[in-house]
């Protein structure tokens, strides 16, 4: 049992679990780079380094290649704020990426019922220039879930269960199974929650953690720290 902090009426919130520490990933560092093309001696608004790039992202179902509409797309580029977009009915999303101080670009794609993917470019990739188009193939996902109770054992409706999942990425891989960017599901009237975006083969190297938020209860810190047994998550009994 773990108590959460409150900003309004304080009533403790409980979830059976183990805890481990987790901190947000630190963006890769590197020297500023210019976009591909002839060298520019100026850093003004017309220089190549300051010009934006346009990436035509296409998201499809990995099983049959069918386009996936309404996929949530989150873009993070260097010092700019994250932008939230979505694919159209043909699975396309045109992404304008600022050129100024563009040291890295990360694009995350997630949709209920599919395993989320993040693709990233940095360093030499940025120097060579971003691709004009890129296709992400999402595999169908599996479900995990459980129930949120208060300390008296009563189910809590409308609680946000934030889910963070990260699969270890190999150095030669551009894409990574990743669920973050404030992704959450809400509990129903019986306090039950379900996330449908998990791989079928969860293993010890995967990082899967949670945090709980509700306006009438003490809410948890920003970092996802709660860990739950995989067997209980699969059985919807966590």
Describe this entry's structure for a reader.
Strands 4, 5, 7, 8, 12, 13, 14 and 16 form an eight-stranded antiparallel β-sheet that branches. A three-stranded mixed β-sheet has the order 6-3-9, with no helix packed on it. A two-stranded antiparallel ribbon has the order 1-11. Mean pLDDT is about 80; it is low at about 1-50. It is mainly beta. The chain has two domains: about 15-20 and about 140-235, Immunoglobulin-like (Sandwich), CATH 2.60.40; about 50-140, Transthyretin/hydroxyisourate hydrolase domain (Immunoglobulin-like), CATH 2.60.40. The protein has helices at about 125-130, 230-235; strands at about 15, 20, 55-60, 70-75, 85, 90-95, 105-110, 115-120, 135-140, 140-145, 150, 160-165, 175-180, 185, 190-200, 205-215, 225.
Give the SSE layout.
Layout: E1 13-14, E2 18-19, E3 53-61, E4 72-77, E5 83-86, E6 92-97, E7 104-110, E8 117-122, H1 124-128, E9 133-138, E10 142-147, E11 149-150, E12 160-166, E13 175-179, E14 184-186, E15 192-198, E16 207-213, E17 226-227, H2 230-234
Parallel strand pairs: 3-9
Antiparallel strand pairs: 1-11, 2-17, 3-6, 4-5, 4-7, 7-8, 8-13, 10-15, 12-13, 12-14, 12-16
* Domain module count: 2
| Distance linking N and C termini | 13 Å
CATH fold node name of the largest domain: Immunoglobulin-like
| Total strand segments | 17
Series of secondary-structure elements, N-terminal to C-terminal: EEEEEEEEHEEEEEEEEEH
Indicate the low-confidence ranges by residue numbers: 1-50
Largest sheet: 8 strands, antiparallel
Strand fraction equals 35-45%
Q: What CATH architecture label of the largest domain applies?
A: Sandwich
Helix content: under 10%
Characterize the overall form: elongated
* DSSP summary: helix tally: 2
Class from secondary-structure proportions: mainly beta
Mean pLDDT: 80
Global Rg: 20 Å
What is the CATH class name of the largest domain? Answer: Mainly Beta
